[in-house]
Design a protein that fits this description.
globular; about 260 residues; alpha+beta
């Protein structure tokens, strides 16, 4: 026997659906209880799992609570072997103030970004393979898939490589490229960098940025890429960058790494 569709299902507005999702997430979804050091370890291990590093290149840094010093991972260890004990705190002169190891000397350029962007609490830089391939081609990121919508108008492009990042020039260039608002950048002949308000957000962004680069490389090998309708990008970006989506994604990765 034919049944008429439920009118309430067909007539529910997008606003009502979004409100219901928010209520359900608040009621049923709960955060994992990871410590700060656990989160740093999770970020490092996830980056290793995702192929972001094959040797000692790449850094994770985070502002310390005092606002004047910064945490990072041990320079001598690959991301894949980082534990909660392999953290070091250093000051703006790159002097170790806590820990028994040294930060990667290249984190000096992170200091320029922290100085220019008080909203950024965590910076991650890697030589992820697909993003690095784009950087070798001199290509900017094309926003052409739902999983890349968080980067709509939020991925800067640094067209020239200033050389080994041990001095100040790269810090000046990258902080200028990010400007006052952008969180991500594709660095020509180098890799990628992201800044986030938390470890969760920075890790989420850099994993998804490499994923977007991977999709772009693979799609472009078949034919020209067709960008999305720009009117659809902002609402998708807003949804994908909600704290609930970002944090629950991080928690899922954390449980898989620690279990």
């Amino acid at each position: 026997m034919h049944k008429e569709p439920n009118p309430s299902f067909h007539e529910e507005t997008e606003e009502a659906i979004s409100d219901r999702i928010r209520r359900d997430m608040k009621k049923y979804v709960h955060r994992a209880n990871f410590s700060f050091k656990d989160k740093m370890m999770i970020a490092a291990r996830k980056l290793a799992d995702e192929g972001h590093t094959a040797y000692l290149a790449g850094q994770i840094t985070a502002r310390a609570q005092d606002g004047q010093t910064f945490w990072s991972t041990d320079f001598t260890r690959n991301f894949g072997e980082i534990t909660a004990a392999d953290l070091v705190r250093f000051d703006r002169q790159m002097r170790v103030v806590e820990g028994n190891c040294m930060p990667n000397p290249a984190v000096r350029f992170h200091l320029w970004i922290y100085e220019q962007r008080p909203d950024i609490q965590v910076i991650i830089h890697t030589h992820a393979p697909f993003a690095s391939a784009l950087s070798m081609l001199g290509e900017e990121l094309i926003i052409a898939h739902m999983d890349a919508m968080m980067f709509y108008e939020d991925c800067a492009f640094l067209p020239d490589w200033p050389g080994l990042p041990l001095g100040n020039s790269e810090g000046e260039l990258i902080s200028a490229a990010l400007g006052a608002h952008k969180k991500c950048a594709l660095l020509a002949h180098h890799g990628i960098i992201v800044g986030g308000k938390s470890i969760e957000e920075a890790l989420y962004l850099i994993v998804m940025l490499e994923n977007a680069a991977r999709l772009q490389i693979r799609a472009s090998s078949v034919g020209p890429i067709r960008p999305v309708d720009e009117s659809l990008a902002p609402p998708a970006q807003e949804f994908l960058m909600r704290d609930s989506v970002v944090n629950l994604t991080f928690d899922s990765w954390g449980r898989m790494i620690l279990d």
